Amino acid sequence: MKNTIIFLLCTLALQVGAQSVPTFEQVLSLRSVGSPTLSPDGKLVAFTGQATDWNENRFDTEIWISRDGKKPVQLTNTSKGSSTSPSFSPDGQWMAFMADRGNKTQIFVMRVEGGEARPATREEEAISGYEWHPSGNSFIFLKPEKEDKSKKEIEKRYGGFETDDREFNLSHLWQIDFKPDPLDPSELPCYEATDSLKARAGCIEWPKAKRLTEGKFTVTSFLTSPDGSKIAFNQQPDPLINSSLKSEISLLELASKKISSLVNNPSADGLEEWSPDSQELIYSTNLADTTSNFYMNSKVFSIKLADKTSRRLGKDFDENMSGFEWTSSGIYCTAWNKTKRPLYKIDASTGNVSIFQNSPDQIFGIAFSRAGDKLAFSGRNGDQLTEIFVTTTASGQPMKITDMTGQVSSWRVAQSEVISWKSKDGAVIEGVLHKPKNYDPSKKYPLLVVIHGGPTGIDTPTPVPVYVYPILQWLDKGCLVLRPNYRGSAGYGEKFRSLNVKNLGVGDAWDVLSGVDYLDKQGMIDKSKMGCMGWSQGGYISAFLTTTSDAFKAISVGAGISDWMTYYVSTDIHPFTRQYLKATPWSDEAIYKKTSPMNYINQAKTPTLIQHGEFDRRVPISNAYQLVQGLRDKGVKTELVIYKGFGHGINKPKERLAATWHNWQWFNKYVWGENVELPVGEKKK
User: Fold this and answer.
1) Using alpha carbons only, what angle is made at residue 681 by residues 677 and 683, rounded to the nearest 5 degrees?
2) What are the phi and psi torsion angles at 362 (to 5°)?
């Protein structure tokens, strides 16, 4: 009942006239859904639902289920942790999922009719991924190796230390039997005596997992063939993030335990999907290109196991495809197409790609029934929150089985439209413009620019933009909000994603400022009242703007890069910098200076809020300290807020609420001239 209560609370709001202006807490309490999966016969759809638990300061994920398109019901309810990765058994009678119920993350099973869940594994290590074996009699799962016992002995004598890029545990594949209705060993006596006495006492043991792979490599993902005879898996030398560029695909024969190499290109090779007859595999790769995989399209191939011949799929398709599902009727996937995300179908014989489903506007996770005649997916239109849909492949008429959007039916939400303009170099840039509900075209409005991360992210129309920026409340205050899809964003093709190579920050700033100029020429904005903000790559662009432009009255830099050399030597993804800047700091110092906000610190004037996670490895916190000190030295009004215990993102509701308030305070002060105090004490519901 806990989650149900939280779900109900999030629909309450402060009434203002006919519609409500939600509080920050109410926006952060919105429920969301995703990860749909279908039962083999297509009659049941399971999905995850996320709710906010303010008492435990976490976002809780549980599994919901709908039968024959009827109203979903909650299937799991974990008091302290989430339940994720739902998967139906091959006979459709069981639901498996992953959860940490006090013994690290394990596989649990329960009847689809409901009832108590029971563990299917009791491993000492946390399980990171699993699949039902097609027979339904076992699970294939992935877990890390046991901790090296010598580490504790070394620590006893020498204390704590770590050798860079040498401290990791490899992960390998295991298989464990599943018995639908076993006796519970904990309920039976077991005597340490003769075998005959054990048999008489009825002693049994929990199933023990059998190891499938071992060696000096780590398994990162795997897929079991539909006929159950083989497992294809991605392997790389170690689990370090940069080693993913050396990922290759191997094949395990379950009967013999023989492992053979299947795909091994110089760049990263990604396992995608099996053919229904278990004779082919889809994989993605950059072939021999090891210098541009961050922004170039991945190439998609199907390889025949018999002779290892490959054929290209979607050769002329100019975007990255993902979420592949191969059924008897064809191959399906999704991909961005500007701000829309259709479901595409690939002809298995020709490799040609065509749109199969384009309603709603954006389609995300997809799942098919065993026969391929029924389909479930998550998706939304520009005026919706993400919903779960079901349909048949024949009709193409999706039926919505959730009502997440109903949560905001009484709210004053963002009015969104997609606009476009030309940047300084002639590149056509799109962006999402949010207007207040009572927008008056005869007025000029303050403007706030919110920049997405990535750079290969994308912003799309939505009624409730979220994260740590109180966009709905600013719209209600009376402003416009522009979210530009600057060069490098996903959805606009490989050439567009390559436009900020050796031009990071510089070209991105052109795109933002030209968007501002476009709105000014339309007579829509008051240029004396403008602010800019963003997180990650959006934080970097905001930092670049705060040191190179005086267009804005206030800027907020969230987890942003301030100096590319500082970033390069301390980030966990060094290749990112080398690929975009085409150099190291030692081979081309000039390009690092040209694209670094700190190179322009003497020009800085704009009051700047800096927000950063204490333990950020992606954009280390040294970037925040460098920027704040430079701004202080120049006498620029600045403030640094560090969110304790967090990495690159703020993933707990209370700290996300704090970050939202900090942005509200900063921009209200410098754009609207208002001093806002941070509320203290519990807010009454």
Assistant:
1) 90
2) -125, 125
Written as one string, the DSSP assignment of 403-429 is -SGGGGTTB-PPEEEEEEEE-TTS-EE
Question: DSSP letters of 219-243?
Answer: EEEEEE-TTSSEEEEEEESSS-GGG
Q: List pLDDT tens digits, range 396-426.
A: 899 999 999 999 999 999 999 999 999 999 9
Q: What separation in angstroms does the CA of 640 have from each of 90, 118, 607, 628, 649?
A: 53, 47, 12, 7, 16
Q: What is the distance, to the nearest Å, from the Cα of residue 261 to the centroid of all Cα atoms in its chain?
A: 30
Q: What angle do CA 217, 223, 228 make, to 5 degrees?
A: 115
Joined together, the tokens standing for residue 106 give 């394990």
Nearest to 545 by CA among 476, 467, 479, 449: 449
Report the first-to-last Cα separation within the chain, whole angstroms.
18
**Which two structure tokens, joined as six digits, stand for 140?**
């294939």
Q: Is 360 left (phi over 0), alpha (psi -120 to 50) or beta?
A: beta
Q: What is the pLDDT of residue 407?
A: 97
| Residue 22 half-sphere exposure toward CB, CA atoms < 13 A | 26
What is the 3 state secondary structure string of 628-650? Answer: HHHHHHCCCCEEEEEECCCCCCC
The structure tokens listed for 501 are: 């190579």
* pLDDT of 640 higher than 70: yes
The rounded distance, in Å, linking the Cα atoms of 489 and 481 is 18
pLDDT digit string (tens) for 8-27? Answer: 333 333 333 468 899 999 99
Retrieve residue 420's tokens.
């476009």
How is the chain split into domains, by residue range? 314-408, 413-670
Phi first, then psi, for residue 136 (nearest 5°) are: 80, 0
Q: Write the DSSP assignment of 449-475 as a string of letters.
A: EEE-STTT------SS--SS--HHHHH
Tokens describing residue 254: 């379950």
The tokens for 535 are 């997180």
Between CA 302 and CA 306, with CA 304 as vertex, the angle to 5 degrees is: 170
Burial annotation 91-120 (CB, 10 A radius, 16+ → b, else e): ebebbbbbbbeeeebbbbbbebeeeebeeb
Helix (H, G, I), strand (E, B) or coil at 496: helix
- Indicate the DSSP class of residue 614: T
Distance CA 545, CA 627 (A): 12
User: Of 330, 333, 303, which is closest to residue 321 (Cα–Cα)?
Assistant: 333
Q: What is the rounded distance in angstroms from the CA atom of residue 400 to the CA atom of residue 359?
A: 11
- Give the predicted TM-score (pTM) of the model: 0.92
Q: Which CATH superfamily is domain 413-670 in?
A: Alpha/Beta hydrolase fold, catalytic domain (3.40.50.1820)
Local structure of residue 274 (DSSP, 8 states): E
Rounded distance between C-alpha atoms, residue 110 and residue 96, angstroms:
7
Q: How far apart are CA 153 and CA 147, in angstroms?
A: 12
SS3 state at 162: coil
Residue from 529, 517, 513, 421 nearest 474 by CA: 529
61-82 tens-digit pLDDT: 999 999 988 999 999 987 778 9
Rounded Cα distance, 666 and 609, in Å: 7
Which string of DSSP letters, residue by residue, matches 331-361? EEEE--BTTBB-EEEE-TTT--EEEEE--SS
